[in-house]
C-alpha cells in the first residue's frame, strides 16, 4: 500500500465496530489526496492512480506518524560499570583465550558477562576454581567491542562468601556508586564530642517523641 496508517483502537471503537474506524481513516486519506491547486505543494491524483497516494509524509497528521530517532552521543554514563558476580574458567580449555582470561558472571543478568584477565584472579584460581564458585567479586567493565558477545573488565575486589550480609551489602552499594567510606575528621568534628550524648529536657519538650 502507498499509505500505511497506525491507528489507536479503543473501547469506543469496539462499541461502534470497526466500520466506524475504517470510515474515519478513509475520509482522512481522501482529504490528503485532494489537489490543493498550489505550486506543487499538493498531492495530485490522476486517472492512472489506483487509489489515494501520499508521497510526502510531512502532509500526514501527527497522529498517523511514528516518531523515530537514533542515539548520536552519550552525554553521561549513569551506570557505575561495576557489578557483583562470580568468576569461572572458560569452557574451551584448548583456546588461546583460556590461558589469558576467565569469565565473570554478574549476579544482575542485565549486565553482560565479562572477560577478566587471569592476572586479576587469585593465584590458585586456575588450579582449584571450585574453591571460588561461591566467592563474590567486584568487576568493573572497561570496554565492550561491537563484534564481541562479552565485555572486557577488571576484577577490583574480592567481597567474600555469597549469601552473607556484609559482602552482599558492599556489592550492592558499589554497584550503585554509593560512597560508604568512613567520614572525614572534619565531618566527625561536627558531632557532639562529650559522649554519651543525650537530648536535653528543654529540647525534648519541643519535639514529638516517635520512639
UniProtKB/TrEMBL annotation:
Keywords, alphabetical: Cytoplasm, Exonuclease, Hydrolase, Magnesium, Metal-binding, Nuclease, RNA-binding
GO biological-process terms attached to the record: miRNA catabolic process; mRNA catabolic process
Residue span, CSD2 domain: 102-177
Pfam family for this entry, one: OB_Dis3
An annotated Gene Ontology molecular function: 3'-5'-RNA exonuclease activity
Compositional bias annotation for Basic and acidic residues: 14-58
Main localization (coarse): cytoplasm
Name of this chain's protein: DI3L2 exonuclease
